[in-house]
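User: Can you predict the 3D structure for this chain?
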Amino acid sequence: MDNFNLSPRTLPLQFALVRYRGALECLDHSQTSLSTEQALEILSARDALQNELKKTEQVSVNILSKLMELDLRLKQKAGKILKVLNLAEYRQSLSVPSQDWWWHLDSQQVHWLIRGSTIIAWTGSLGLLANIASRFLSGGVGVLGAVAVVFPSLLTLLQARSELTEAGKEGLEKLVTKLRIPPSCREEAKFGSLLTLSILLLGFWFALPFMSQVYNQRGLNNYDQGQLGTAEENYLRAIALNPDNVDAHYNLGNLYEDLQQFDKARTQYLIAVKGDVPEAYNNLARLFIQKKEYPQAVALLNQGILQAGKQDSFPEVKYNLFKNLGWARFKQGRDIEAQQALKVATGIASNPENAQYIGNQGSAHCLLAQVLQRQKQPSAIEQWQQCCQLASTINPDEDTWLYLAHKKLKEAGKSCKQP
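Assistant: Here is the predicted structure, written as structure tokens:
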């Protein structure tokens, strides 16, 4: 009977330990399944051992060591017992106390699962919080950003305090006691609070694209009011919250182009082009035209026209795409193709419903006049007159073409009648 020091006072405890060890031997036979009787014998043997432990005033270190070893075997092989016994029914019939853990092996397995899930939930929650905070902070905080960072951080801090500090644990225990949550369900209740936090943070993370659009719209409003610095800040915040917000990239590129920061504008347009924004194709192509890189511009404009047709873009978008395509073709010396594209553009602008939204109607006429002038067609004069009437010196391109219009009309003995 192993190396036990037998004495009349500890003999019953030692026999109970031997019985317990013998009952556990059936767990080691992996090839055979456990019978109901064998499973019950294991638990009964552990009951008997526990009764003897209560009666014994001093338990030797040797016995305690053996007991810990056997209990570990039981916990490791608990699955075999759970396959043949519904412990919940036995606990109800026998009124098993909560401290007799061997009758709660099913709960023990759940608790291990919950503890593992808790680690995963904590890792996910902290990762989400770090991701959310970094996005807001990288784009500049602002009032909304401060609230967005502080609120989830505060929730996480409170949850961490309740889980990781002694005072927090005591407070949580008092709360679950006050709510009359059974001891066997307290681990689940604690995990439930953490899971709620994780769901809130996940919901917040999924809301980032919506918040990005809010900042993008604010930037547009600032831009319309001439507040370019504030507009830039809001566009950058929108992009920080959602790097895939192609509208914000396009709007920021447009702002940089107004500020003559063409390299920055080109970078933003390139990102927006990846999102198939027709306006971005147009603006990026115009920058290529200005750099005399006409083949690249034509490729972008053709793709932009295709996307504008698919997306049923606004008429002013289609107008600018065809106008710039005509411009690029004219610079390539391909006058027939230039004339075709420019006539489509002037046709779009001639519709009164469209004209009110097109602020550069004169551009297509000025370009078409140059194409017809090079072909020595008399109809060039009519286009020069349209150019003179509709173009504006505020537009850098039209300012140059207006000078040409005045010159050509003067050579033809015509006057430039501007509104």
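The longest helix spans residues 105-138. The chain has three domains: 11-85, 106-206, 239-411.
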